[in-house]
Amino acid sequence: MKVRHKKLLSCLLVVIFLFTMLSGCSSKNTAVNKNTSNNSGAEATKEAEPTATAEANPLAAGIAGNTAPTDEEKAMVNDTLEDSYLGDVFDTKIPNDYSAYPMDATLDVWMPSNSILASVCDDLNNQKTFAQVEKLTGIKINFIVPPLGEETTNFNLMIASGELPDIIVDAGRYTGGIAAGVADGAYMKLNDIIEKDMPNYNAWRNSDEERRVTSVLDDGTIGAVYGLAPYNEWCWFGMLIKQEALDKTGLAVPETIDEWHNFLLACKKAGYDQPLNYGSTYGQIFTGILNGAYNVWDWMYVDKDGKAAWGPAAAGAKDYLTMMQQWNKEGLFNKDWATADFNQRMAEAASPDCAVMMDSPDTMWGYWKQDNNIDFVGALNPVLNKGDKPQQTYKNFKSTGTIAAITTQCDNVEAATAFLDFAFTKKGWEIYNYGSYGDVHLINDKGLPYFPEDGLMYNDPDGQPLSNLIWKYRIHSFANIRDEHNSNPLITAKGSYSGKIREYWTSNTDDSMTMPPVSFTADESSREGELGTILSTLRNEYFAKIVMGQLPVSAYDEFLQKAKTQGLDEFVQLWQTALDRYNAR
Amino acid sequence: MNGRNDRKRKNSLTLDLIRKDFKKNYFAYLLIIPVLAWYIIFCYGPMWGITIAFKNYKPLLGFAASKWVGLKYFEEFFTGPYFFRTIKNTLMLNVWGLAFGFTSPILLALLLNEVRGKVFKKTVQTITYMPHFISLVVIAGMIHIFTQSGGIITQVVDFITGTEHSSLLGYSKMFRPIYTFSGIWQNVGWDSIIYLSAMSSIDPGLYEAAEIDGAGRLRKMWHITLPQIRPTIIILFIFAVGGLMGSSHEKIILLYNSLTYDTADVIASYVYRRGLQEASYSFATAVGLVSAVINFILLWATNKIAKKYSEISIW
């Protein structure tokens, strides 16, 4: 009998133990501690009370051009809202209305992480830059971070639960977009609030037509705060040629399709067995690098008459496919272009078989130059006839892509707007993009922040690679004034020429056919999704098989016929309607 | 009159039996509680969520408040141009799986059962079930490497066919074999464990009797081992047929590309691509419901056939 009981007891214990284990493994993120800060001693700790900008701090005059700031100067920059040392370096003056700060409040902010951020910072609540923003504004942020890779599930569970935080970063995740989020009553309509309580964002948004148009919905509703850049960021994808391949062949950087053809053949003769590395598993098959020469684009674009059109159906498609099929037959592409994943492509890139990559110069600067000491140059997208202007469909319309919404359950709207508005002040621009002063960045004599060579950014004590530090000492992407060109250390690092290549590409190509960021209504969006899946499946299959030579070029006619019967016209019409609405914003 | 009393007595008898059984084996009943609870909470509880297949589901509104749209999503699925292709590919991959993936663990178990050397047997078992513990993403990466141009498997294929291939993952003919045999490599050891355990409970007396009758190794395998594990095989087979319409999209998405769509694009991967553009829960649920219904019919039919011919069945 006794033995029985013992058995029973131990068994029960095991069951209980199992249950606690199962239920205890994911409660970390769900518990949102609403620590309402004690308002009892409002005047208790005013250690670094930011001064209003009425009269400039006398220290501020000695900041610009200073390469060895004193502790006093560092404290002034890092702990106060003084910003008179910052220059007006862009076409538009960055606003600096700090009347809302300091403020005593706590906000819950849902924000997804990413693999890089997670590798340099295990908890967003300890992120250096955000901590500094908290100190400057007085607003405490309690970050709720979904587990890596489960953002979508976590987001939708949060929406379904009806328990919303104060602010949601990456608010575009809402099914049907921001418009649906406002219509369903999840996000606040911000039109009046921005006018009234967000002087900096309001001024910055309205200072430029592109910034204004991309941050509003078709019907004039503003449903979120959009990250807005001071300029159009450079395009980041194109043709990159190994310098040694140019030396070995003795040819100049090719410009036309025919010159490219000759160059690649010459490379093959010179021993580059698979000269052009061209992948398709993550989209390069349709980046417009080669097809753009034939005015054939990957997906939707705006044609010469300003109408929406579907790239794969354009007139030059057959010529493009003929050329591709021939190049493939001549062995000018990497053999496994249709199947190679990223790692395989990078291994191929460093091998002596490859002469040209289609990729990002930032990536290749790491893989080629830093890891293997291979010098390279950027070439413009090929054109059909000598003297034509190269074209591409990358344009970011001065938006950073990060969107923050204030939810309808936000109990302190004033604090939420103040926190988000800070990112659009001069001080916010400095801190978010360049991190803290003195150890991470300094200010040059024009009043523009930079990372000094002996600073933390290029000498990380943990030895993390530069590509990770973009999230360690600064914020790489947020609903803020993102200053990618001057504050991305990968571009500004000594010896890096990826920025130069990107700038060269951007300023020498025509991007007028790029489809702007239009938006769809809920019904349109579901139909667009349905037709889009059908059409992209069709396109990927036919184009890949024709290039491979598994189908003749004449199969293109069959492809076009199929696309038409499967609703191509309706699909284009959906986009046209959305484009008309966008143009009318 | 009489009958009713009889039935009453029977009822009280069975109740009595149950009570007795419970008293005697209450421990076993206790053990089943967590299992039951798990099924009720995680399998039966969420079932009413199936209604979203007939609604335009919006998470914020919840299941109840989302608008009914009737059979809209089913129509979308059945009338899509890729409907037949995805159905066919799903079935074909699973048929390949039944033909090769289902039989190989049985073969492996039979072979291992004949091995006398303890050390050798354990080593083989460990090696064969190791890949089961490797993450799918890593497995797919390995497959990519083995089948790239000049990869180990590609070289073998080149040698056999006498022509040079680029990556085998670019040929639609190759997709089913690659998918199926990599699946076998992954799971054969793991899946054979259940057969080995069934074999270990076979009465050795049977073998001795067969030996006296002059049966050799193969005869013993055929007339004793196989019939003895037949119930296990049949039950697992019924379950396997019940999964004919199901397929997980993860491995497919890691291995397929636009060149192999015509053999590799299955229902799950198509729905996944559709979901990339917008979280179409309702559509995915509708498709899942169709698959589940077909699976259930298959399961039921197989079960019926098995019952008729072998008296072994799930119910």
From TrEMBL, chain A:
Q: Which portions of the chain have biased composition (kind: Low complexity)?
A: 50-61
Q: Where is the composition biased (Polar residues)?
A: 30-41
State the UniProt keywords alphabetically: Signal
SUPFAM superfamilies in UniProt: Periplasmic binding protein-like II (SSF53850)
Q: What PROSITE patterns has UniProt attached to this entry?
A: PROKAR_LIPOPROTEIN
Q: Which domain of life is it from?
A: Bacteria
Where is the segment annotated Disordered? 30-65
Question: Which residue positions does the secretion signal occupy?
Answer: 1-27
Q: Does the keyword Signal apply?
A: yes
What protein am I looking at? Extracellular solute-binding protein
Native organism:
Anaerocolumna chitinilytica
